[in-house]
Design a protein that fits this description.
The complex is a heterodimer of chains A (147) and B (505).
Chain A (H helix, E strand, L loop, with lengths): L1 H19 L4 H22 L24 H32 L26 H9 L5 H4 L1
Chain B lengths: L1 H20 L4 H29 L2 E4 L10 E4 L1 H24 L2 H5 L2 H17 L3 H20 L4 H32 L4 H7 L5 H19 L7 H5 L5 H25 L5 H25 L3 H22 L2 H32 L10 H4 L1 H15 L5 H16 L2 H27 L14 H19 L2 H15 L1 H9 L4 H5 L6
Antiparallel strand pairs in B: 1-2
Helix pairs in contact in B: 1-2, 1-5, 2-3, 3-5, 3-11, 3-14, 3-19, 5-6, 6-7, 6-11, 7-9, 8-21, 9-11, 11-13, 11-14, 12-13, 12-18, 13-14, 13-17, 13-18, 14-16, 14-17, 14-19, 14-20, 16-18, 16-19, 17-18, 17-19
Classes of the chains: A mainly alpha (147), B mainly alpha (505).
Chain lengths: 147, 505
């Protein structure tokens, strides 16, 4: 059983890191999801796999009989799943935003913030009322998108 | 006493929720934000005094005794970091009130700032490694949204790189926590530092590397810093300033914590690696800065370079080395935030952050030119400012520990830092203006007050440095003796009882 988990974790990490190295933004996102799942399974495995022995105190006793499953890793995984869900939902929205703003899914086109001497539009530009409307409703189309 | 330790978490959380509710009412939200930041600053000052007087403070959340429950621990390093971070957060909130446009305010700028503070304070105070992960995620999530709030072209581009690499770091962090729990059966820092003594050194090496990568990405250490110069110059100025002051330093704090408490089994290997990374971080950062022609990009690269100095002190693992790291952290957070804030003033006056478009600001605002020189010279390490003493400590520690080549790099890098600060001064303040003068805008007091306060702190830390020096030395002593931390958290609980908990196979 452990061996199966080890193989599974290895595949998830491998696939995740491979996708992270791709140029497509969406694939990077999928890579991050796989990596997060791999990490969760790793916690599960590291906590020790125990079958069919829940950590319940039997009647008339004051402590659980060992070996029993460790509930803590499962609590950690639960927390990690909730967190990664929230973060990934944000990341999906960000990828969509990036696509709307730049009209590309290719990381090689995203060099404006790295290239020497080239500075993108000043970011402290106040947001206009129209744009704010769009940001709230999510249907804005900036003038400079087409330019 | 327990309340004093939990309030630095509860206050930002409460303010964040309150500010979210009042975000459409500008006057109310400004009032809440400024009041809350001020109260937080006073509260943390009180906490610092208390910890400096009585030693470590520990609170078990929900009264679950450690190592079963989550504990909050305040040692000198934590409270010093808390104090200085709260100070720059206060300054940034004041600055934001005059800078951030109403649209961004309505989109939730202030609630996010306080959510970020909640996460940052949590990382400094927690005594539980999984809780550290959770706090990291809270601060990351808030920083993601702050970074891209407004969804400008540059913002989403820089934001995407920032998000992807930080999520990768979180995945590494989570994996490392899982393996660490697997081999030790505990998550409490104090208990971990006892439990790692019985773990196979090879597994510990692996864990040290995993944690090193995770925190190294967040701290922008040498081979892992590329997200920082790509993203820090894109958001509005106060956001840049806050990130520059707080976020990478949280990574440095975590590195200091784990490489003094957990992974000291083989310093000849792990801390040697840190030393090499530190030297290369200093060097690449400053060289990157020299190539740039934009105020905020130059400053972003200098963050990377300065991180090297902090890791340098940690890598030496001597009392003087760690004291220099702590002193450097405090000095750097104040100076770096201030430089970004002044960079914002330059942008506002000159209409651009590109050095080629700027010029002759000294003629228009001589006092601003002098004000810029305070943090700029402090960053480069000129006396009598705080950076001089910080660099002096680092160099003395390096020489005392026999790390001659790394010390030589530290000295050379400080010269390059001076060069690039003078470049900004020459280009922005001194040279004739290339284009006709823009209409002279008045600068509001709210923009100037935070800058003046932070500059005063820089001068004060340089001229009256004795109290901080003593605190930094004591913090280093606390860090170097894990027994102090263990005793404070676990008390005199017999180790046999604790040894039997580890549920690991």
């Amino acid at each position: 059983m452990e061996l199966f988990f080890v193989a599974m974790i290895g595949v998830l990490y491998g696939a995740g890191l491979y996708l992270l190295l791709r140029r497509s933004i969406v694939k990077i996102l999928v890579g991050l999801i796989l990596l997060g799942n791999g990490a969760n399974l790793l916690i599960f495995l590291a906590g020790g796999l125990v079958r069919g022995r829940p950590p319940l105190v039997p009647e008339g006793r004051t402590s659980v009989s060992l070996p029993s499953a460790d509930p803590l890793p499962q609590a950690l995984i639960l927390t990690a799943i909730v967190i990664s869900f929230g973060v990934l939902v944000f990341a999906v929205a960000l990828v969509y935003r990036t696509y709307r703003a730049l009209r590309t899914d290719d990381l090689d086109d995203l060099t404006a913030t790295d290239r020497l001497g080239e500075v993108p539009a000043p970011a402290h530009r106040p947001i206009t009322a129209d744009e704010e409307d769009g940001l709230v409703r999510g249907e804005e189309e900036r003038a400079w998108v087409s330019s | 006493m327990g309340l004093l330790l939990t309030l630095p978490l509860l206050l930002p959380l409460g303010s964040s929720l309150l500010l979210f509710a009042t975000r459409h009412n500008r006057r109310a939200s400004l009032l809440v934000a400024i009041t809350s930041a001020t109260v937080l600053l006073m509260l943390v000052s009180g906490l610092t005094l208390q910890v400096a007087r009585d030693g470590l403070l520990v609170v078990a959340i929900g009264s679950w005794p450690p190592p079963y429950g989550i504990v909050l621990v305040a040692d000198l390093l934590s409270v010093l970091m808390l104090l200085v971070c709260t100070l720059v957060a206060w300054a940034t909130v004041l600055y934001s009130t005059a800078w951030i446009d109403p649209a961004r305010e309505r989109l939730g700028y202030y609630p996010l700032i306080f959510a970020l503070l909640f996460g940052v304070n949590g990382t400094f105070l927690t005594g539980d490694i999984f809780n550290l992960y959770v706090c990291f995620e809270i601060l990351l999530m808030s920083s993601f949204v702050l970074l891209v709030l407004g969804a400008e072209r540059g913002q989403v581009e820089g934001g995407l790189k920032y998000v992807a690499l930080n999520l990768l770091a979180s995945a590494f962090f989570l994996s490392a926590v899982g393996v660490l729990y697997g081999v030790t059966g505990t998550l409490n820092f104090a208990h971990l530092s006892r439990a790692v003594l019985g773990v196979d050194p090879l597994v510990l090496d692996l864990l040290a590397v995993l944690f090193g990568i995770a925190f190294g990405i967040k701290a922008a250490v040498f081979p892992l810093f590329f997200w920082l110069p790509a993203s820090y110059h894109t958001p509005p100025v106060p956001v840049s300033a806050l990130f520059a002051g707080l976020l990478t330093k949280v990574g440095v704090y975590s590195l200091i914590r784990i490489f003094t408490l957990l992974f000291v089994h083989d310093p000849g290997w792990s801390h040697r690696l840190l030393l090499v990374c530190a030297a290369l971080t200093m060097l690449t950062g400053v060289l990157g800065a020299l190539a740039q022609q934009d105020v905020r990009r130059i400053l972003s690269f200098h963050i990377v370079s300065q991180i090297g100095y902090m890791i340098f002190g940690l890598a030496l693992l001597t009392p003087l080395g760690l004291a220099s790291s702590v002193f450097y952290l405090v000095h750097h957070i104040v100076v770096k935030t201030n430089l970004f804030l002044i960079g914002g003033l330059i942008e506002r006056l000159g209409g651009s952050s590109r050095l080629s478009d700027l010029g002759a600001l000294y003629r228009a605002r001589p006092w601003l030119g002098l004000l810029f020189l305070v943090p700029a010279f402090s960053l480069a390490g000129l006396p009598p400012l705080s950076g001089f003493l910080a660099k002096l400590l680092v160099i003395r520690a390096g020489l005392a520990a026999g790390a001659y080549w790394a010390t030589a790099i530290a000295v050379i890098v400080s010269l390059f830092t001076l060069l690039s600060m003078l470049k900004i001064w020459n280009e922005a303040f001194w040279k004739p203006r290339p284009v006709e003068d823009p209409p002279c805008q008045p600068l509001s007091t709210l923009l100037l007050l935070p800058v003046l306060v932070l500059a005063a702190v820089t001068v004060l830390l340089g001229t009256a440095s004795e109290p901080l020096l003593v605190l930094a030395t004591r913090a280093a002593d606390q860090l170097l003796d894990p027994h102090i931390y263990q005793r404070a958290v676990l008390g005199q609980l017999g180790s046999p009882a604790l040894a039997s908990i580890g549920g690991a196979p």
